[in-house]
Structure formats: C-alpha cells, structure tokens
Write a structure and sequence with these properties.
It contains 13 helices and 15 strands. The protein is an alpha/beta fold. The chain folds into two domains: 2-185 and 388-404, Glycogen Phosphorylase B (Rossmann fold, 3-Layer(aba) Sandwich), CATH 3.40.50; 199-386, Rossmann fold (3-Layer(aba) Sandwich). The strands form three sheets. The protein has a seven-stranded parallel sheet with strand order 3-2-1-4-5-6-7, sandwiched between helices.
C-alpha cells in the first residue's frame, strides 16, 4: 500500500505508526514536508516550498493555512505527473496541508489527525485572566476563525483520530461520528522507573539521583498555556520549605501558544524579574530543550513533576513522566483530569492555586514514601491505557487499514 504522510513537523504524532509500517516492509511510505523541516527522515521524504503570508487580523490564520495547502497541492500535482498515487493520505488537520488533497486525488481516503477544535468560549480562550485580551469578543472571534481550517479538513476526511476523549469532545457533536480515539502511545518498556538513573548538570557541577529532592517542570516553551507563571510563583515557597530541593526546568524561550511576553523579553525573564530576590538561583536550573533520553532520565530522578495546562491539548510529557514513575502534581483542568484522579494516581490542584500547588509539592518532598503508591498507580494507568505496543499501535494500524478501505 502507498501511504502518504502530510505533517509540517513530521514525524511528530506519526512517528510510531510510520516506523511500524516501515518495519513491516509491505508498504511504500512517503512524507511530504516543508523545506524548513530539518528533522531526520524516518521514511523517504518529498519537500514543498512555502512561506507564511503573515496576514493580520481574523483572516490571518486561514490565509496562512490555505497558502500552505496550495503549496502542498502543487507538490502533489508534481508527484501525480510522475505517476505517484497514494492508497491513503494520513495528515494533520491543523495547518491546512490536507485542504486541497481532494482536488488532486478525489477518491483517495484521508485519515486526519484531529487534535483540537478551537472554540470562542469554554476552553483555552479567556481561561487565564492574566493573558486574556481586554476585548474578549475579539479573542472569541479569533478562535472561531482558527477552527475553520480544521472544520474544512475534517469535512473532507474519511476518518479522524483524536488522542484523548477530552480532545475529541472539543469537536462539534455532529462531527464526532468521524472520530476514533487513539493516542500516539507511550513506549512503557523504554520509559520506565530506573533506581540507578542519574542526571549530571555539568554547568552547575551537580548530579541528581532518585531519592534527591528534585522538582521538575517541562514544556516545549516556557509560557502561560502550560502554567509556567504559576509554577514559578509556587517555586519560592517550595525551595524555602525544602532547603535541599532543586528545580530543573526544561523548555525553550519561544511561544508555542497564546500570549507573547512584553517586547524584548521572554516569559522566563519576565517571571524572574517579578520574583527578584525570592529564589535561590543556585538551586534553580534552566536546561533549555533536551534530547528525549535526557528528559526520561530527569523523570526517573524527579521527586515531584509539576504539570499544568490550560484546557488544551494534553502534553506527551505528562504521560511519559507517569510511565517513568514520577509523581505528578497537576492542574485540575479537563485534559489532566481525564488521566489523573486526585489521590489515586497523582495529585490535582486548581490551575491558579499557587499556594496549593506549592503545598502539595512540599508534602511530596517531605514524605516520599507516602506517595509511592501514587507513583506506581500512575505507571499502571499509562500501561493500561496508553501503552504503545499492546494498545495504541495496534489500534493505529487497524485504523490505517479501515481508512484505506474507504476509497
């Protein structure tokens, strides 16, 4: 079977299924990626050229996505002229890459990764008063405009797949009949507790091991959507109460989602300025973005992993932290509550409860044995619901077969 992947950040969510299909040896895989995607290819790739239109206002996102979709369509037409026709297209619906596939191959099935449906109210928009626009109606309109691309993409799709029930429920009810719920999966055999793990912070001449009072925080970028501001405001109380505790903070200084920091600064700089004099910076370690293996080691030495998020897409990092045996102190928001039950497999606090989050972390650092059962239950949760080999990958492969039959 000829399978074409469309994803600007490929392999991204398709990494595991693409590698499994490649290993099977009975499929011809191809990924169409933009020129600026420099990730190591795991399957043969074909590139397309695209530049953002950077259009302002309500139409900006749609203009960018349709321009990307048109660039993809041009590349698909070139492939078609060379005699290439896929039996199945597997794509992400968020950036417009699948918008014009039907105009090149009207009958080819499309399996769409339907990650999140933006709404003007009830989810991320307006959730955080600190970053909400004074004109809330403008924010709502912008979110609704962003949903147009996914709406069009899912309309054309043969099948859709959402990683979690909460994410599927962000879509209009009349579209949910198209959606299967299949997570990308966590390799629980590789991401596992390790009592012999260690992490060397060479710049600070520190080596961390299981049993040390290590507080971890991870996000692609250090920003409000993932509660970086809440974490930072909880940190002074944690470090003051636990003189041996250290905080290791993983993430870049860009913005993946939501509000930008004041001009000429980053959210990290902004929060450090706000907390000036309240933190023992010799025990606060910003390590930037790290390779996956180093992230896993950090989770294996973590005594408390603080994971906070707006009502938005659930991060892979939380599930992998649970698989590694970390204790999660998480936000009581929908995507987290779907996985973590307070007092059973983790600890939940209100997203904005700075004092409560700090108190929960302090308790866990002070009495690690009391929370051992929660760590074990967290790993069981991931193995029972999100295990790559036994659950998620078989479901993805079944979904691939189903979609391919829908020509």
């Amino acid at each position: 079977m000829n399978i074409l992947f469309l994803h600007q950040n490929f392999p991204a969510q398709f990494q595991h299924v693409a590698m499994a299909l490649q290993a099977a040896g009975s499929h011809a895989l191809l990924a169409l990626v933009p020129d600026d995607n420099q990730r190591p290819p795991i399957v043969p790739i074909h590139r397309y050229n695209w530049k953002s239109t950077r259009s302002p206002g309500l139409a900006g996102h749609y203009a960018d996505c349709t321009a990307r979709g048109a660039a993809v369509a041009d590349a698909l037409l070139d492939l078609k002229k060379q005699g290439y026709t896929p039996d199945l297209v597997v794509g992400h619906g968020g950036w417009g890459e699948t918008l014009f596939v039907r105009d090149v191959w009207p009958d080819v099935p499309i399996l769409l990764h339907a990650e999140f449906f933006y709404r003007g109210h009830g989810f991320d928009v307006g959730f955080d008063p600190e970053t909400a626009s004074p004109d809330t109606s403008r924010d709502a309109r912008m979110a609704r405009a962003r949903s147009v691309v996914m709406l069009q993409a899912l309309t054309d799709a043969s099948l859709g797949v959402a990683p979690t029930r909460w994410q599927a429920d962000t879509f209009p009810h009349w579209l949910q009949f198209k959606l299967d719920i299949v997570h990308e999966g966590v390799d629980t055999a590789a991401v596992t507790p390790n009592p012999d793990a260690s992490v060397a912070l060479r710049r600070d001449d520190v080596t961390l091991r299981p049993g040390d009072e290590v507080v971890t925080y991870v996000a692609r970028n250090l920003e409000h959507y993932r509660g970086f501001h809440i974490f930072m405001r909880a940190l002074p109380a944690i470090l003051a109460a636990r003189p041996k505790a250290r905080a290791v903070i993983v993430g870049g200084d860009g913005v993946s989602y939501g509000a930008h920091p004041p001009p000429g600064t980053t959210w990290r700089q902004h929060l450090l300025k706000e907390l000036n004099g309240q933190l023992d910076m010799s025990r606060v370690h910003f390590v930037g973005r790290v390779p996956h293996a180093r992230f896993v080691s950090l989770m294996q030495v973590s005594a408390v992993h603080i994971y906070l998020t707006y009502p938005f897409v659930l991060s892979w990092s939380m599930l992998e932290a649970m698989s590694a045996g970390a204790l999660i102190v998480g936000s009581r928001t929908g995507p987290v509550e779907e996985v973590i039950e307070d007092g059973r497999n983790g600890v939940l606090r209100d997203f904005f409860d700075v004092a409560g989050i700090a108190e929960a972390a302090i308790e866990a650092l002070a009495e690690p044995a009391r929370f051992a059962a929660l760590r074990q239950a967290a790993r069981r949760t991931v193995k029972e619901r999100f295990d790559l080999r036994s659950i998620c990958l078989p479901r993805w492969l079944t979904l691939i077969d189903r979609a391919a039959e829908m020509r």
